[in-house]
């Protein structure tokens, strides 16, 4: 069973045990640090870390903006930081083990030894199904989920952690993303725990700006160069997604997301239930509306969660690509038309 490497906040959210070995700060004045949870083997610094095989995902909260490659070897050694003894990382099988960078500060990366359980290896749909590449190339538009797809974070979990309700909210997020509870139930439950004020949302965005997934900006540019429109269709919050859209050059009118409501003094007042993405099956309705409004014939949905898979309902998305480069949700991946772990896989398929 892979063990996650995480920041203290991540450990709390994921229900991981307390740090078993040590905790190392990522950078001066950083709110983050690496905590090592059993079993442990750690690799310090290559400044660039990538993924090979991507059958099991180690969640590394260490995070450079780019992610080139970690050597494919069963044992890798790198120079330790000046104040620490030398450490190594060992992959039990380089063909299925991987290190996927999800967060970083300069000059630090880490990986854990994992053991193969076979549960997520050899996905049949890691290669595109028949016609998938042609559908992507001929698409009028591509709709992206935002959390754990366009960005490396779950926005509502980040906001919850910032507001002091991280662990309880993360449990609801996991249920929502795997489809074990209706999305609208999970959304209402999470917001009732957070009750974020407008000032808290703004401060969270300032102190914890969203981190774009590696390759996402290049993929958006490639789609646009092929005259394929790009939309963000998310169960997250419009207020937190607008900066992401701006950074990627996606017009605000191409955002379909939930809307937080605030009172006259900026206090939390709920969310807009009229938004289609506030409920299960809403992304299918959102895609249907996009098709109707723009006269599109073919639309592709890319995301990691159950609500993204739901978008591939009759009249909705014509192709669902599961992006598992941040979170591997096996029930979703199993039903996808195509599973990718790196956006470069899609970029190379476009002319």
UniProtKB/TrEMBL annotation:
EC number: 3.1.3.3
Catalytic site: 145 (nucleophile), 147 (proton donor)
Stored CDD domains: HAD_PSP_eu
Biased composition (Low complexity): 67-77
Keywords, ordered alphabetically: Amino-acid biosynthesis, Hydrolase, Magnesium, Metal-binding, Serine biosynthesis
One MF term in the entry's GO annotations: L-phosphoserine phosphatase activity
Spans through the membrane: none
Pathway participation: Amino-acid biosynthesis; L-serine biosynthesis; L-serine from 3-phospho-D-glycerate: step 3/3
The protein's required cofactors: Mg(2+)
Class of enzymatic activity (EC top level): hydrolase
Gene Ontology process terms (BP): L-serine biosynthetic process
Record Gene3D superfamilies: HAD superfamily/HAD-like
Region called Disordered, residue ranges: 67-86
Pfam families in the record: Hydrolase
One GO CC term, this protein: chloroplast
UniProt-listed NCBIfam families: HAD-SF-IB (TIGR01488), serB (TIGR00338)
Family note: Belongs to the HAD-like hydrolase superfamily. SerB family.
Protein name in UniProt: phosphoserine phosphatase
Organism: Miscanthus lutarioriparius
